[in-house]
Amino acid sequence: MAFLSRFFASPERAPLPSLEEILAARGIPTDLPGLAEHADEFKHLNADERAHWGDALQDLVTHGWPLPPVWLDAQYDLDPRLVPVWMAERDGFFFRPHIDGLALRMEVCGQTMPAAWLTLWGVTWEDLFDRSLDQLRERSKNAPFQRQPTGIYRGVFSDGHSAARFLLPELWSGLFAGQNTFIAIPSEDELYVAPQVLLPQLVEAITKSLSGPGPRLMGTIYQQVENKFLPATLQDPHPIAQPQRELRQSDTMEAYKAQESALPAELGEPAPAGVVRTQQGRSVSYTTWQEGRPVLLPETDLIGFVSAGGKPLGIYFRQTLPRISEIHGTTVDIWGPRRIRYESFPTVAQLARLECFATAEQMADLFKAPGPAKPKQANTGSQQDRASSGARAAQASSPVPAHLRGLSLGMQDND
Length: 415
Prior knowledge:
There is one protein chain. This protein has 415 residues and is of the alpha+beta class. It has three domains: 56 residues, no CATH class; 106 residues, no CATH class; 142 residues, no CATH class. Helix content is 31%, strand content 20%. The chain is built from 13 helices and 19 strands. The strands form four sheets. A six-stranded antiparallel sheet has the order 5-6-8-7-9-10, covered by helices on one side. A five-stranded mixed sheet has the order 12-13-15-16-19. Helix 4 runs antiparallel to helix 7. The radius of gyration is 28 Å and the shape is flat. The protein starts with a helix and ends in a 23-residue tail after the last helix.
């Protein structure tokens, strides 16, 4: 009987850590604003859940974020938001990647939700998101998409968050039945829908919005393909291929511009990113690397090299940079698009291993161009011939992407 009693006896349970012990172990004050409202939920947690709950509380305190509203109120005030991925990474709140370039966050009672709130509520993201879509769907009733004079449609919603209706394709996917549907959300309060035949008018609406004073959301045009959404793939010679390319590049440039101010100065100089127009009418991204101190290079199509004294050394395809095996870069740990840190500047002999886009003379000529006017073309035939021959040197085995091969500087403009 003693044997059987030991066999069926329940193991002794360790006492559950109290709320005071959880707080003390993490240096959290007991009078934390809003803590009392969540203390009742704590009583129903097991030991592991209490530790996880305490970690979530500590995360809020560390970031200086408030405790969430109580779930009884929060569940009725949920607003999904689409933001650029780089912004979601930078801000540190809870997000989920949605589609290329866009992330999904949640506004709860007018506040952006940190991940720790889910833990304190004891709910999942999936449940939260489903509830938010139901509420967004309810608020979208009887709010039409209005036809613009150009023929495209614009969502009209009184809450100022039209872009969120991207998440509810049932509201607009039938506007152009039987035709390819294209969508754009250039700002928080704008959602445009157009068929392929009206893509020029859609580009015009996006460009007008991006040039306005309001906060930018995303310039890229998205396309509905069955039940999926992705950046519109428009290949040359499609007339909107180049505008779409420029819109996508402008989204990337916006991210790099925001990133510059957040880079630690001790790491080096953040090289600026921009866009240049080729002789073939194609826009390609570029950056400038000047000798003198470590540089933080964005991932652009081209790199313009400048000596310590300010002398242009030429513009080369970035994809061929690994040919200079003596120079090694390290990835910068920061949100947004990738940057690579380099300490050593290449010699002229090393630059000769790279594939040329523009010669040093052409680059110098471009730098001389006045700001508001169009940069002029290289002023000698031999310079132009050398740049063109350098671009034509890209062969099938070249690391330069196929869509960049054969490009040369040519006539420039301000875009």
